[in-house]
Structure of Tryptophan--tRNA ligase:
Amino acid sequence: PLRVLSGIQPTAGSFHLGNYLGAVRQWVALQETHDAFYTVVDLHAITLPQDPAELRSNTRLAAAQLLAAGLDPERCTLFVQSHVPEHAQLAWIMNCLTGFGEASRMTQFKDKSSRQGADRASVGLFTYPILQVADILLYQANEVPVGEDQRQHIELTRDLAERFNGRFGQTFTVPAPHILKETAKIYDLQDPSIKMSKSASTPKGLINLLDEPRATAKKVKSAVTDTGTEIRYDAENKPGISNLLSIYSTLTGAGVAELEQKYAGKGYGALKTDLAEVMIDFVTPFRERTQQYLDDPETLDSILAKGAEKARAVAAETLSQAYEKVGFLPAK
Ligand code: AQP
């Protein structure tokens, strides 16, 4: 089978709806058809300052949420990035193959560093996409299931894989992004011109899956809609309603056209009330399952230990090929 690799940061505590619909939901589906590797990327987390104790507990929390979302350790390899030292090792080689100007063009760095103040941004934040390149190439992934905001980083990964292969001989699989159109970008509920994000969204615009379900329902009900009254998918002219329709459709499996019909002649209020219910039905069991995994840290840690072992076997093999190609003298 083809292989997939993807990662999620353990920084915010709760996953938000954008993380789930844009990425994690695809991960769950792909474990059925692909050889799937999924990682909690704690090395990426420290590109911004983290409290050590919180980072540790958020890493477990991220793994618990992935399991609660439906990842099955029998069907995929779930591991913590720092448990596999090869990520940092291959990242160094990739750093040395990346042009400074090329790295400077990464828009996510520009956004995140400008929010922090460019002078305070770490060099790690700057080279973050290159660590991500290493994450993907180590597993010879064919596809990378992510949200639209990651497309540029996957492009960089392809460029670097081709560059390495061209310079040193065929070594890495050149991966393709796996981005589903309908959920590629979930928008902020209060400002549907920006993506839902832990750092840019206001609390009312951001749905955290672990929040109190009633609070979540309230956010849905007070989501910004558009002028007019018609419930119709039109991302350009009705971004607010279109975002709600995408979310509703994905969570229930009902087609957007079907929903348009269902709400024909009804107001925005009816749609939001129903979507609030849908959301409660989704987050309530998600929260419970997450808590169950957290209540049993031994099981959780042993899942992660087994995952790390499986991941390392693959990563070590790729890294040793890369070391040899580059010309490092083997240690005797
Ligand atoms: N709004 C979104 N719509 C669709 N997909 C999204 N993703 C994030 N936001 C959306 C996808 O979630 C995956 C994990 O992302 P991450 O761990 O890198 O978190 P992030 O992208 O840093 O999340 P945020 O909220 O967007 O954080 P900030 O505010 O720091 O930028 C990725 O596949 C991502 O595409």
